[in-house]
Amino acid sequence: MSDQRHAPAKTDVELEQELYKKRENIYVREVHGKWAFLRNLAGAILLGIYYGLPWLSWNGQPLVLFDLPARKFYLFGITLWPQDFFYLALLLIISALALFFFTALAGRLWCGYACPQTVWTDVFLWMERKIEGNRQARIKLDKAGMSRDKFLRKFTKHLAWGLFSLWTGITFVGYFTPMQTLWQEALTNSLGPWETFWILFYGFATYGNAGWLREQVCIYMCPYSRFQSAMFDRDTLLIAYDERRGEPRGGRKIGRDPSELGLGSCIDCKICVQVCPTGIDIRNGLQYQCIGCAACIDACDGVMDKMGYPRGLVKYTTENAMEGQQTHIVRPRMFVYGALLILITTALFYSLFTRIPLEVDIIRDRNALYVQSDEGLIENVYTLKIVNMKESEETYHLSIEGLEGAELINSAGDFSVPAGQVLEVPVRVKIDPVDLKSTSSNINFRLKSLTSDNLEVVEHGRFLGPRG
Questions:
Q1: Which of 55, 46, 48, 87 is CA-nearest to residue 177?
Q2: pTM value?
Q3: In the listed set 231, 247, 267, which residue is the last one of a domain according to the structure?
Q4: Domain boundary residue, one of 209, 231, 253
């Protein structure tokens, strides 16, 4: 699908001028309506999660913490180790499928309601409106010469942006360093070099992207705007202008019937352009610059209410609906995306909740396949690498099974492994040659916790002997 199927074609000169012209400030007008409420609600929830999670704890441990030096990730009461890396792979697959599903369903929902660039830009715009005033006041302020009032307003705005960005950077590092420790270090001026770097880097990125770049991130820097159309089809919900109803445009008095004037419903007030965070005109057709925030829908509905016209001149619709054809919201690709999403998500949660926080690796002695003792017994030597992935010390009992007549020689006896530690235990297994059925036999090592109930693992190994 073309990104601008319904937009008038541009000449080469116009395209060149558009690419290389100097950026013009976009003064976004405040808008109210149901979509603005949903967008603000989504933003408040996401910001609350981002800024709140690092402060929460669970059984004395941070609720969410990526402890890179200790190679431990704390996620909602579960401690993950490098051995659990495949959970991250599953999470990335789930995120990709969710993006496919919701994009195919309703276009750029992520961009309009959940993208960090959108959410933080809305916060910066809110601070800008509170300090500098509404859209007209900001335009007037920027055109005016430098004065005491202008300097104070600009200084206050950038100070507010800077403090908010710094708080954002500290919160980001709080996902890698416990927040209480981080604030104590910050207040005592004892932050480490890497913590200082990432606080300043992430804070500066927030300040630059949400305060200065804004729509340029969405239009020029974000790759999603470029390949989003590959996920669309003719039944994908999009924000579009009803050209058949709206044209021809023209001004008129409130309450006048447009059909009597030979006009469409669009009064050409351009409010839909003024509320757009990327500065596009939705009436020019589908455009890749549209982030799907639905601000133009709220703005146009408000104008239609004042004029006494039906709402929906700008609305969520589909290409099929715009051409008078039937729309199929439920379609095969939605079933495929949805089924895969549910299946992999269920598998992830099932695996997490049934996960055993204990791991055993069996390493055979590489110097000899087997050893024959003076008594004529066959011995195999192993090293068991035991990883205690719990947050408490555990005591384990080791036994073998599966090879009749075999005897375990474990000089360590029952042994303890501290929380989050790895212990290597050398063991030997010996057996009378007459009990060996083949040169390679199965043997199971069972490790059972004497401290926690229902915590045990069975690891399979091989016992090697001489050829018969």
A1: 55
A2: 0.85
A3: 231
A4: 231
